[in-house]
Amino acid sequence: MNDVVNKETVEDIKLYPFVENKQRGITKETCMQFGVRASLSERDGKTPTAFYFPSFNQKGEITGYKKQDVTKNKDEKYHWSAVGTVSINNKLFGQDVAEKVNRKHTNCVYTEGEWDCLSVFQAQCDSVKGTKYEGHQPFVVAVPLGTKNAVEGMPHNKDFVHSFDSMTIFFDDDEATPLELKKGVMKGKEAREAVASAFIGSVELWSVQPTQGMKDASDYMQVGKSNELAKLVQFGRKPLVTEKIAQVEDVDFSELVAPIPQGIKTKGLGKQWLKTIDAENARKAGPEKARYIDATGKRVIKRPLPKYYKDKLFNDEQKDQHRLSKRIAGPNDGNVDGIS
After folding, report:
1. By the 8 A CB rule, do 33 and 45 touch?
2. Looking at the structure, do residues 150 and 223 belong to the same domain, yes or no?
3. Collapsing DSSP states into helix, strand and coil, what is residue 82?
4. How far apart, in Å, are the Cα atoms of 25 and each of 22, 122, 123, 140?
5. What is the mean pLDDT of the chain?
6. Quick one: pLDDT at residue 254?
7. DSSP 225-287
8. Domain stop point among 183, 211, 240
9. Helix, strand, or coil (residue 113)
10. Nearest Cα residue to 133 out of 210, 218, 223, 234
């Protein structure tokens, strides 16, 4: 990001105040938690003119701030800019906050933008106020420098990513047009696919997508739907299967009945390993391209259907794919004990 238009220095910004963002529905306390500062209007000394999101290097030092000039339209040049060094090599936004939470790393939510990160964090904190879980802080971070850099930024923080049992990807509910794809534009859907493909097999993958006509997490807070956002993140997530892994055109029927390659083994898995993560994609793609979750419920794997069960499913060539879809996506949910 270019800092040519900014006269401020990193040290200047460290002295700026913490204020609420009324339009976004984000409190002063949340901004303080994440170190998000603001510059104020010279006319009234109260109205925010810009917000500054800190960027930490791997040593935990602030090297720069990502600046949002709220006096400019989002399509105007320098609506977003940088002060100091905001690098793809730095930590994810909010990672410094998550690293201070002293509890088991079960799940971390990855959002597309900084305001989305603050929205999910605040909504989840507010949802447990007055309960025994009050003060329980969720793990929420944002990918650095937008969707196009989503995959590149996360490997620089792979130890942090892999410290969690699972990741929940909550990116914007938009997708690039064919023309934009040719230009290399990546939006929410494409970024979600790319991140999931990069981390399949290393962490359990989940996805949250906005509902009620919302585009992202921030939209919920802007219309006062904090509770709905918290419920969506907590209870509305779904196992994630990427289209890059399960596409029907990628599958040739001859591959489905070909001998299974030797040496594909998964330690500690018995006959309960075959449980479909995404029934619809499994129906489309068949067992060779479908993704499954092992008996521990922890690890997502992609591997061929064992020959023993393949033989039980494939009785004649004409009924093969129909039988396969029924068995994998049927009431037994892919449990091999239900195959007869």
Report:
1. no
2. yes
3. strand
4. 5, 9, 10, 17
5. 77
6. 54
7. -HHHHHHHHHH--EE---TTT--GGG--HHHHTSPPPTT---TT--GGG-EES-HHHHHHH-T
8. 240
9. coil
10. 234
232 and 121 both lie in a single domain: yes
Percent of the chain with pLDDT over 70: 69
Q: What's the token pair of residue 93?
A: 């936004």
Contact 230, 183 (CB under 8 A): no
C-beta separation of 160 from 99 below 8 A: yes
Containing domain of residue 47, as a range? 1-87
pLDDT in tens, 275-309: 433 444 444 444 444 444 444 444 444 555 444 44
pLDDT at 150: 73
Residue 221 CA to residue 272 CA, distance in Å, equals 42
Same-domain pairing of 68 and 146: no
CATH number, domain containing residue 115: 3.40.1360.10
The residue among 71, 87, 103 that closes a domain is 87
Res 184: pLDDT: 75
Q: What is the CA radius of gyration of the chain?
A: 23
Query: To which H or E segment does residue 141 belong?
Result: strand 140-142
Specify the number of domains making up the chain: 3
* Same domain membership, residue 227 and residue 138: yes
